[in-house]
Specification:
about 400 residues, alpha+beta, conserved putative lor/sdh protein from methanococcus maripaludis s2 fold, Elongation Factor Tu (Ef-tu), domain 3, 4 domains, six-stranded antiparallel barrel, elongated
């Protein structure tokens, strides 16, 4: 778009300044009145070198290339996404139909809070195994105690006592195994204590609890739906106090951006700024946009930033140094959309030169290659030279 704009301006102004433009190109082909030396003639014929008269020079403005120390700011846009490091599905560990759903999308939940209940024979079977194991453990404990008393009185052999002790150890192992199964199902200590009460009815409902504190961002099931253990995601829970902003940067900005750089993000509709940090820089280039993805972890007070919202981001790279800079107006674009400048090689003689640019601020643009400090560039009138070069 920048190239098209420049050409449009040139075509609009060309009729009024045709004499000036023709004058720019004529010195290269007019036979001079004064004889030239061989070196001067060769230099005048050098491609891309424009020799201007004093009258033509009056239409140009130049500036000396300087160096300055600054922090480069990279501008980009991004899309808000949930923080994947603090977003997780709520999944049940048993099979069965959903009997009750306690929360809905947008609800704030705490870690361990029940989200829904599933009726499953798996949980009743697990509780039954645990009760039987506890019964055997208690029985074997009484046998060990009685055998120890008889051993002390010489009424039984030592091997009988050792056998009873082994049976007790096996029973204790079964208790621990069955207890671990209940913990995997997510049964709380209070529910385990209730399950230990012999003679009471075994509850068949199991609560699916929130794995983290956050907000229900997706509800994926309905009442009566039969879910599969370890497979069916019931809810998506996210801690929205932080979000990810998925941005992208161009090749020219890659050398300056680092992980840990501070980022300021804005959205015109929100009227406030958000602070983030670059957490990831991609190792590939998107073939469609020709940019490299970056991930910005952003603080989201009040959950104002929503998924898929667009934001403008300014990455404060912290890259400081003795940077070569020129006024923004000195940088033009060629027919390949590559940045160029016109450099004064000798008094009144100018050449087009391709440069590599980085960020810009305060009316200046950083040049990473193609120019040296102390050289003189055209800051106003470069379009005339560019037009003259295209018709020469």
């Amino acid at each position: 778009m920048r190239v098209q704009s420049s050409r449009f301006r040139t075509r609009t102004l060309a009729p009024a300044l045709l004499g000036v433009l023709l004058g720019v190109s004529q010195p290269a082909c007019r036979t001079p009145q004064k004889p030239e030396t061989k070196s001067e003639a060769a230099q005048a014929a050098q491609p891309g070198l424009f020799t201007l008269t004093a009258d033509q020079l009056s239409h140009l403005k130049t500036a000396v290339v300087g160096k300055t120390t600054w922090a480069v700011a990279v501008h980009t846009t991004g899309t808000v996404d949930w923080d994947a490091n603090h977003t997780t599905p709520a999944i049940t560990q048993v099979n069965g139909p959903i009997t009750r759903i306690l929360v809905d999308t947008g609800a704030a939940v705490k870690q361990g809070e029940p989200l829904l209940y599933v009726s499953s024979p798996d949980i009743s079977a697990a509780v039954s195994v645990y009760r039987k194991a506890r019964n055997r453990e208690a029985l074997n404990k009484r046998i060990v105690d009685r055998t120890k008393e008889l051993l002390d009185k010489g009424a039984v052999a030592l091997k009988d006592y050792e056998s009873s002790q082994a049976d007790f150890n096996d029973a204790s192992t079964d208790v621990q195994n069955s207890l671990q199964a209940l913990r995997i199902f997510g049964i709380t200590p209070q529910e385990i204590a209730q399950a230990e009460q012999q003679g009471t009815a075994i509850a068949t409902e199991l609560a699916v609890r929130s794995p983290i504190s956050g907000v229900i961002v997706q509800k994926l099931v309905s009442t009566g739906q039969v879910i599969q253990a370890g497979q069916t995601a019931c809810f998506m829970v996210s801690d929205i106090s932080t979000v990810w902003v998925q941005g992208h940067i161009f090749d020219s900005d890659l050398p300056t951006v680092r992980i840990g750089d501070a980022v300021q993000e804005t959205n015109p509709s929100l009227g406030r700024a958000f602070q983030g940090t670059v957490a990831y820089i991609g190792s590939f280039v998107d073939p469609t946009t020709r940019t490299t993805p970056v991930r910005i972890v952003t603080h989201n007070p009040g959950g104002i930033l929503k998924k898929d919202m667009f934001v403008d981001a300014v990455i404060h790279t912290g890259s400081q140094g003795n940077t070569v800079v020129v006024p923004v107006s000195a940088v033009l674009r060629d027919d390949k959309n590559e940045p160029i400048v016109f450099v004064e090689m000798e008094p009144g003689k100018f050449a087009q030169r391709q440069v590599a640019i980085a960020g810009q601020q305060n009316g200046l643009i950083a040049i990473t290659s193609g120019l040296r400090g102390g050289e003189t560039v055209v800051t106003s009138g470069g379009l005339f030279l560019q037009f003259a070069g295209s018709i020469q």
